[in-house]
Amino acid sequence: MAAKLHVCMTCRAGLPLPEGEVPPGARLHAALLAADVPVGVEIVPVECLSACSQGCSVALTGAGKWSYVYGRLTDLDAPDILAGAAAYAATPDGLVPWRERPVIFRKQSLARIPPTIPPQETAP
Amino acid sequence: MAAKLHVCMTCRAGLPLPEGEVPPGARLHAALLAADVPVGVEIVPVECLSACSQGCSVALTGAGKWSYVYGRLTDLDAPDILAGAAAYAATPDGLVPWRERPVIFRKQSLARIPPTIPPQETAP
Fold first, then answer.
1. Do the Cβ atoms of A114 and B57 come within 8 Å?
2. Any idea which architecture B3-121 has in CATH?
3. Does ipTM come in above 0.90?
4. What span, in angstroms and rounded, lies between the C-alpha atoms of B10 and A30?
């Protein structure tokens, strides 16, 4: 089991960015890397997740799993994002039971997408 | 080259659904099936794309391609959605040049997600 946590690096969270300031997306990326990244979770910077009006945003993907996109995040959400990513990584299909999802994942979902390749059946 | 066009069947487009009425998502699905579905595009009904406040929504996926989610759609958008899906299906990576995307795809993107498996290199 594994997951990729894609982080939009260029996100300005819908606001103007004063010259010389680090974009909120890059701040979120740095906060995630500085925290305890769970085993099985790989943090992947991306240039744009096309969710600009709902930034900062992250996307969780994994082979054979549903993908999820979450928005309206800040660097203060890093611990909850990583806890949610760990729970996602531990599933075969990306479907974490509702009550086991962090509140930000329950309330700030932008979209989910079915797996490109269905989950492999596990041996009994 | 191919694409799956996932259509959220249960979408109520954020509105109450009068008893006995067909949900807007199911109406969009029916309109897509009734139109000329381009070669290489497969229409796939799904129960929920978790974009409920921005419905109706569809998601485009394909092996090795970026995935895209679009929202605020109605059954009247079926021809444009299918034109956009055909352009997407014809790409190796899901990245359709901006000017070749239907206006609804340019203006109503909810999110995009990198491919789980990177695009295969094509022979020269």
1. no
2. 3-Layer(aba) Sandwich (3.40)
3. no
4. 38
Provide the residue ranges of all domains of chain A, joining segments of one domain with +: 3-121
Which of B113, B116, B117, B120 should be substituted to probe chain A, the one whose Cβ sees the most A Cβ atoms within 10 Å?
B113
Alpha-carbon dihedral of residues A70, A75, A81, A82, nearest 10 degrees?
150
- Is residue B94 a contact partner of residue B115, using CB atoms and an 8 Å limit? yes
> B116 contacts in A (CB within 8 Å)?
4, 61-63, 67, 115-117
Task: Note the pLDDT tens digit of each residue in B26-49.
Answer: 999 999 999 989 999 999 999 999
Rounded to two decimals, the pTM is: 0.90
3-state helix/strand/coil string of A40-94: CEEEEEECCCCCHHHCCCEEEECCCCCEEEECCCCHHHHHHHHHHHHHHHCCCCC
Buried b (16+ CB within 10 A) or exposed e, A15-51: eeeeeeeebbbbbbbebbeeeebbeebebeebeebbb
